[in-house]
TrEMBL record:
The lineage of its organism: Eukaryota, Metazoa, Chordata, Craniata, Vertebrata. The keyword Electron transport does not apply. Keywords: Disulfide bond, Glycoprotein. This is VWFD domain-containing protein. The keyword Glycoprotein applies. Coiled coil: none annotated.
Protein backbone atom coordinates (compact mmCIF):
# COMPACT_ATOMS: atom_id res chain seq x y z
CA UNK A 1 0.00 0.00 0.00
CA UNK A 2 1.24 3.57 -0.58
CA UNK A 3 3.12 4.97 2.39
CA UNK A 4 5.18 7.91 3.54
CA UNK A 5 8.12 7.84 5.96
CA UNK A 6 9.06 10.79 8.14
CA UNK A 7 11.03 11.49 11.30
CA UNK A 8 9.24 13.06 14.26
CA UNK A 9 11.49 13.67 17.24
CA UNK A 10 12.96 10.36 18.34
CA UNK A 11 10.43 8.41 16.27
CA UNK A 12 10.39 7.08 12.73
CA UNK A 13 6.80 7.31 11.50
CA UNK A 14 5.32 5.31 8.62
CA UNK A 15 2.03 6.76 7.32
CA UNK A 16 -0.12 4.69 4.97
CA UNK A 17 -2.97 5.98 2.85
CA UNK A 18 -5.43 3.47 4.36
CA UNK A 19 -5.22 4.91 7.87
CA UNK A 20 -2.55 2.71 9.43
CA UNK A 21 0.37 4.41 11.21
CA UNK A 22 3.50 2.77 12.61
CA UNK A 23 5.68 4.65 15.08
CA UNK A 24 9.09 3.26 16.07
CA UNK A 25 11.55 4.88 18.47
CA UNK A 26 14.43 3.10 16.68
CA UNK A 27 14.96 1.06 19.83
CA UNK A 28 12.50 -1.12 21.74
CA UNK A 29 9.08 0.53 21.29
CA UNK A 30 6.67 0.32 18.39
CA UNK A 31 3.17 1.79 18.28
CA UNK A 32 0.42 0.85 15.82
CA UNK A 33 -2.30 3.43 15.25
CA UNK A 34 -5.48 2.95 13.23
CA UNK A 35 -8.01 5.45 11.94
CA UNK A 36 -11.54 5.27 13.44
CA UNK A 37 -12.83 3.53 10.31
CA UNK A 38 -11.12 0.36 11.53
CA UNK A 39 -13.10 0.23 14.79
CA UNK A 40 -14.52 -3.25 15.34
CA UNK A 41 -13.08 -4.50 12.05
CA UNK A 42 -9.71 -5.86 13.19
CA UNK A 43 -8.59 -8.79 15.32
CA UNK A 44 -5.41 -10.33 16.64
CA UNK A 45 -2.81 -9.71 19.32
CA UNK A 46 -3.62 -5.99 19.57
CA UNK A 47 -7.33 -6.57 20.24
CA UNK A 48 -10.35 -5.67 18.11
CA UNK A 49 -10.45 -1.86 18.57
CA UNK A 50 -14.08 -1.75 19.65
CA UNK A 51 -13.51 0.44 22.71
CA UNK A 52 -14.05 -2.45 25.12
CA UNK A 53 -10.85 -3.70 26.74
CA UNK A 54 -12.63 -6.64 28.37
CA UNK A 55 -12.86 -8.67 25.16
CA UNK A 56 -9.38 -8.02 23.79
CA UNK A 57 -8.27 -11.59 24.62
CA UNK A 58 -10.37 -12.96 21.75
CA UNK A 59 -8.81 -16.06 20.18
CA UNK A 60 -8.65 -16.94 16.52
CA UNK A 61 -11.78 -19.05 17.01
CA UNK A 62 -13.58 -15.94 18.37
CA UNK A 63 -13.84 -17.10 21.97
CA UNK A 64 -12.91 -14.73 24.80
CA UNK A 65 -10.41 -16.26 27.24
CA UNK A 66 -8.74 -15.07 30.42
CA UNK A 67 -5.38 -16.76 29.94
CA UNK A 68 -2.87 -14.62 28.05
CA UNK A 69 -0.92 -17.61 26.74
CA UNK A 70 -4.02 -19.36 25.42
CA UNK A 71 -4.98 -16.14 23.67
CA UNK A 72 -1.51 -15.48 22.24
CA UNK A 73 -0.90 -19.05 21.06
CA UNK A 74 -4.20 -19.06 19.18
CA UNK A 75 -2.79 -16.40 16.85
CA UNK A 76 0.29 -18.35 15.74
CA UNK A 77 0.78 -17.97 12.01
CA UNK A 78 1.47 -21.69 11.68
CA UNK A 79 0.51 -24.71 13.75
CA UNK A 80 4.11 -25.88 13.40
CA UNK A 81 5.28 -22.93 15.52
CA UNK A 82 5.99 -23.90 19.14
CA UNK A 83 3.69 -22.56 21.84
CA UNK A 84 4.83 -19.60 23.88
CA UNK A 85 5.42 -20.57 27.50
CA UNK A 86 5.12 -18.48 30.62
CA UNK A 87 8.47 -16.97 31.57
CA UNK A 88 9.74 -16.52 35.09
CA UNK A 89 9.09 -13.18 36.76
CA UNK A 90 12.09 -11.02 35.73
CA UNK A 91 12.67 -9.62 39.21
CA UNK A 92 12.62 -13.14 40.66
CA UNK A 93 15.09 -14.27 38.03
CA UNK A 94 17.34 -11.25 38.65
CA UNK A 95 16.69 -10.30 42.29
CA UNK A 96 19.77 -8.05 42.42
CA UNK A 97 18.05 -5.67 39.99
CA UNK A 98 14.71 -5.41 41.79
CA UNK A 99 15.50 -2.56 44.20
CA UNK A 100 17.14 -0.49 41.44
CA UNK A 101 14.23 -1.11 39.07
CA UNK A 102 11.60 -0.14 41.64
CA UNK A 103 13.47 3.02 42.59
CA UNK A 104 14.02 4.16 39.01
CA UNK A 105 10.51 3.35 37.83
CA UNK A 106 8.91 5.16 40.76
CA UNK A 107 9.18 8.33 38.67
CA UNK A 108 5.99 7.15 36.94
CA UNK A 109 4.00 7.28 40.19
CA UNK A 110 5.79 10.38 41.48
CA UNK A 111 4.88 14.07 41.40
CA UNK A 112 6.63 14.39 38.04
CA UNK A 113 3.61 12.80 36.36
CA UNK A 114 1.03 13.94 38.92
CA UNK A 115 -1.15 15.87 36.47
CA UNK A 116 -1.49 12.76 34.31
CA UNK A 117 -2.32 10.20 37.02
CA UNK A 118 -6.06 10.89 37.01
CA UNK A 119 -6.22 10.47 33.24
CA UNK A 120 -3.85 7.54 32.62
CA UNK A 121 -3.61 4.86 35.30
CA UNK A 122 0.10 4.77 36.23
CA UNK A 123 0.36 1.47 38.13
CA UNK A 124 0.29 -0.85 35.13
CA UNK A 125 2.96 1.28 33.45
CA UNK A 126 4.99 1.24 36.65
CA UNK A 127 4.81 -2.57 36.88
CA UNK A 128 5.74 -2.94 33.21
CA UNK A 129 8.68 -0.62 33.81
CA UNK A 130 9.88 -2.69 36.80
CA UNK A 131 9.54 -5.93 34.83
CA UNK A 132 11.49 -4.53 31.87
CA UNK A 133 14.17 -2.94 34.04
CA UNK A 134 14.67 -6.24 35.90
CA UNK A 135 14.80 -8.20 32.66
CA UNK A 136 17.47 -6.05 30.98
CA UNK A 137 20.50 -7.68 32.58
CA UNK A 138 22.72 -8.14 29.54
CA UNK A 139 23.50 -4.52 28.81
CA UNK A 140 21.27 -1.62 27.89
CA UNK A 141 20.07 -1.40 31.49
CA UNK A 142 18.83 2.15 31.21
CA UNK A 143 17.42 1.62 27.72
CA UNK A 144 14.59 -0.59 28.96
CA UNK A 145 13.83 1.72 31.87
CA UNK A 146 13.83 4.85 29.70
CA UNK A 147 11.64 3.24 27.04
CA UNK A 148 9.09 2.18 29.66
CA UNK A 149 8.85 5.69 31.14
CA UNK A 150 8.65 7.21 27.66
CA UNK A 151 5.67 4.94 26.93
CA UNK A 152 3.77 6.41 29.88
CA UNK A 153 4.75 9.95 28.85
CA UNK A 154 3.47 9.24 25.34
CA UNK A 155 0.14 7.95 26.72
CA UNK A 156 -0.18 11.23 28.63
CA UNK A 157 0.73 13.20 25.52
CA UNK A 158 -2.09 11.49 23.62
CA UNK A 159 -4.47 13.20 26.04
CA UNK A 160 -2.81 16.60 25.65
CA UNK A 161 -0.91 16.27 28.93
CA UNK A 162 2.67 17.20 28.15
CA UNK A 163 5.20 16.03 30.74
CA UNK A 164 8.82 17.16 30.62
CA UNK A 165 10.35 14.29 32.59
CA UNK A 166 13.86 13.85 31.18
CA UNK A 167 16.79 15.45 33.00
CA UNK A 168 20.58 15.33 32.58
CA UNK A 169 20.51 12.48 35.12
CA UNK A 170 17.38 10.62 33.93
CA UNK A 171 17.30 9.39 30.34
CA UNK A 172 18.82 12.56 28.83
CA UNK A 173 18.54 13.47 25.15
CA UNK A 174 21.40 15.80 24.32
CA UNK A 175 19.87 17.46 21.29
CA UNK A 176 22.05 20.55 21.53
CA UNK A 177 25.05 18.28 20.92
CA UNK A 178 24.07 18.27 17.23
CA UNK A 179 24.22 22.03 16.86
CA UNK A 180 27.12 23.53 14.90
CA UNK A 181 29.14 26.01 16.94
CA UNK A 182 27.22 29.24 17.39
CA UNK A 183 24.03 27.76 15.88
CA UNK A 184 20.79 26.68 17.53
CA UNK A 185 19.13 24.37 15.03
CA UNK A 186 18.37 21.39 17.27
CA UNK A 187 16.19 21.53 20.38
CA UNK A 188 14.61 18.92 22.62
CA UNK A 189 10.85 19.16 22.93
CA UNK A 190 8.94 16.83 25.28
CA UNK A 191 5.94 16.82 22.97
CA UNK A 192 7.17 18.34 19.72
CA UNK A 193 4.85 19.49 16.97
CA UNK A 194 2.55 17.32 14.86
CA UNK A 195 3.22 18.39 11.27
CA UNK A 196 5.25 21.44 10.30
CA UNK A 197 6.20 23.16 7.06
CA UNK A 198 9.79 22.20 6.40
CA UNK A 199 12.16 22.03 3.44
CA UNK A 200 11.28 18.33 3.14
CA UNK A 201 7.56 19.01 3.56
CA UNK A 202 6.89 22.52 2.16
CA UNK A 203 3.11 22.02 2.10
CA UNK A 204 3.01 21.35 5.84
CA UNK A 205 0.55 18.52 5.19
CA UNK A 206 0.92 14.95 6.41
CA UNK A 207 -1.19 11.93 5.50
CA UNK A 208 -2.64 11.84 9.01
CA UNK A 209 -2.74 14.35 11.80
CA UNK A 210 -0.90 13.11 14.89
CA UNK A 211 0.08 14.38 18.28
CA UNK A 212 3.52 15.90 18.43
CA UNK A 213 6.19 13.41 19.50
CA UNK A 214 9.10 13.96 21.84
CA UNK A 215 12.67 14.25 20.71
CA UNK A 216 15.06 16.57 18.95
CA UNK A 217 13.53 18.90 16.41
CA UNK A 218 15.46 20.89 13.83
CA UNK A 219 14.06 24.41 13.67
CA UNK A 220 16.59 25.55 11.10
CA UNK A 221 14.61 23.57 8.56
CA UNK A 222 11.33 25.13 9.62
CA UNK A 223 9.81 27.33 6.94
CA UNK A 224 8.55 30.49 8.55
CA UNK A 225 5.19 31.72 7.15
CA UNK A 226 6.44 35.13 6.01
CA UNK A 227 9.32 33.67 4.00
CA UNK A 228 8.05 30.74 1.98
CA UNK A 229 10.03 31.46 -1.20
CA UNK A 230 12.65 28.79 -0.77
CA UNK A 231 14.72 27.40 -3.58
CA UNK A 232 13.84 23.74 -3.11
CA UNK A 233 16.03 22.61 -6.02
CA UNK A 234 19.26 24.01 -4.64
CA UNK A 235 18.36 23.29 -1.00
CA UNK A 236 19.19 26.80 0.15
CA UNK A 237 16.26 27.18 2.51
CA UNK A 238 18.49 27.77 5.48
CA UNK A 239 20.35 30.77 4.11
CA UNK A 240 17.43 32.36 2.25
CA UNK A 241 14.40 31.97 4.46
CA UNK A 242 15.32 30.59 7.84
CA UNK A 243 15.71 32.37 11.11
CA UNK A 244 16.48 30.71 14.40
CA UNK A 245 13.40 30.62 16.63
CA UNK A 246 15.41 30.67 19.86
Amino acid sequence: MPFQIRSMGIYLVVDTTVGLILMWDKKTSIFIKLSPSFQGHVCGLCGNYDGNGNNDFTTRSQSVVGNVLEFANSWKVSSSCPNANRTQDPCTANPYRKAWAQKQCSIITSEVFAKCHSQVEPNEYYQACVDDACACDTGGDCECFCTAVAAYAQACNELDICISWRTPAICPLFCDYYNPQGECEWHYKPCGAPCMKTCNNPSGRCLHEMRGLEGKHNYAYLILPERLKCNMVNKICITQCMTCLH
